[in-house]
Amino acid sequence: MDLQHWLNEALANHEKWTAEYGAFTPHSSLQVDPAVFGSALAELQDRLRDNYPFFHPRYAGQMLKPPHPAAVVGYLSAMLINPNNHALDGGPATAAMEREVVSSLASMFGYSEEHLGHLTSSGTIANLEALFVARSLHPGRGVAYSSEAHYTHTRMCGVLGIEGFPVPVDGRGRMDLSALEELLRTGKVGTVVVTPGTTALGAIEPVHFVLDIARRYDARVHVDGAYGGFFTLLAGTDLEPEPWEAIASCDSVVVDPHKHGLQPYGCGAVLFRDPSVGRFYLHDSPYTYFTSDELHLGEISLECSRAGAAAAGLWLTLRLLPLTRDGLGEVLAAGRRAAVRWASMIRESEGLELYQEPELDIVTYFPRTSPLTLSAVDAASHRVMETGMNAAVDPIFLSVARASKAAFAARHPEVEADVDGARVLRSVLMKPESEDYLDTLHARVLSLL
Question: In this structure, are strands 142-146 and 164-167 parallel, antiparallel, or unpaired?
């Protein structure tokens, strides 16, 4: 895709639209010396080189990759206008686009047309909103989430002044259902957060079983699909369908288009199955809600000003890569195929040991050491990561995850527990190009042992 061509097209269309309103003279206070601008831009470009190559499949560290060119063009097209999707006054076109993309996300998860939802600036804010509604519906009751859930839930419980209850996990890093039920029996929990795709291991928590248990104790179920939510597109083909199909019966769900949705940062989403929860957002404004009697997005959001450009970028992307198995789903399927194949290669290698079978597109593994102790594994994992990312020639970029002594004992009892835990290597293969680059990546990791 010729990004420069389409960016030029977007700029030309913007200039054509602005010309329709007549010429005017930009204010002198906004004028800058072209030489100074050129110097500052050169400095900016030089400083931006101090980044890891998120675009390249040799980067297999964190959940980072560039947006799709369609998202860039869509975002820029709207950014030049700079609409604010808080009120229809601030962004009528992009507000309509936001409603369309949110409706598509709701359909992807199996919600009916009668839902409530909007884009957010991040998954953190999206989860905050879901827990804010949960607190309003179950005042005085806390929130349960697995000990492998994203740290945002602990943090947002603190922000909201509600008690958080970490639930132990099983041998695959998923919420322990017996421990959950024991906690729910106390009556202290009003909401259970379930994660189909944990950010450390990519473990798919059993949404369907959690939902059954929670309903027996009058608890809401919130799905944190910020990382894994888009994998619902693979349900029934590449993945077992039950956890993903159960999302349709859960009370709320969060997903981050700026992860697997190919968007630039600043694009999360929260959806509620019951639209009546909008009553908890009610507020009044003396000056923003006058151009339409239709509900403004700011009236169903904790955030006020939000970038309309985020909606435009997502809207254009989904026109080209729709929320289907053969559309955006194929992008995710490539990463998952790469993870499954790499796991097989690791099992057959002499120098590496698979820490846990990948379920989505995250692979965890560690060097076989002698002696095979937690302290030796920890040191070797850190050394491989550091050596790889600092190599002057042919660098690779991995990350590490910390595993407790108990977690190691459940998966690898052969590793002597001489310390409380160890780091293991962790690779996120969320770029579809990882599938074709995998042999090179695997060989490079082996060369660092």
Answer: parallel
How does DSSP assign 64-80, residue by residue?
Answer: --PPPHHHHHHHHHHHT
Rounded CA separation 61/52 (Å): 10
Residue 3 has pLDDT above 90, yes or no: yes
Indicate if the alpha-carbon torsion angle 374, 376, 377, 378 is positive or negative. positive
Q: What is the pLDDT of residues 76-130, one digit of tens each?
A: 999 999 999 887 888 999 999 999 999 999 999 999 999 999 999 999 999 999 9
**Spatial CB neighbours of 22, under 8 Å, sequence gap ≥ 6:** none
First-to-last CA distance in the chain? 38
Query: How far is residue 80's CA from residue 53's CA, in Å, rounded to a whole number?
Result: 27
Q: Which residues of 44-65 are buried (b: 16+ CB within 10 A; e: fewer)?
A: eeeeeeeeeeeebbbbbbbbbb
Alpha helices (H) in 247-327, listed in sequence order: 308-320
166 exposure class (CB count in 10 Å sphere: 0-12, 13-18, 19+) = middle
Closest to 203 (Cα-Cα) out of 339, 106, 374, 323: 339
In angstroms, rounded to a whole number, what is the distance separating the alpha carbons of residues 76 and 8?
11
Statement: residue 239 has pLDDT above 90: yes
Q: Could you identify the residue written with the tokens 């890569």?
A: 321
**Per-residue pLDDT tens digits for 166-221:** 999 999 999 999 999 999 999 999 999 999 999 999 999 999 999 999 999 999 99
Q: Which residue, 8, 107, 73, is CA-closest to 316?
A: 73
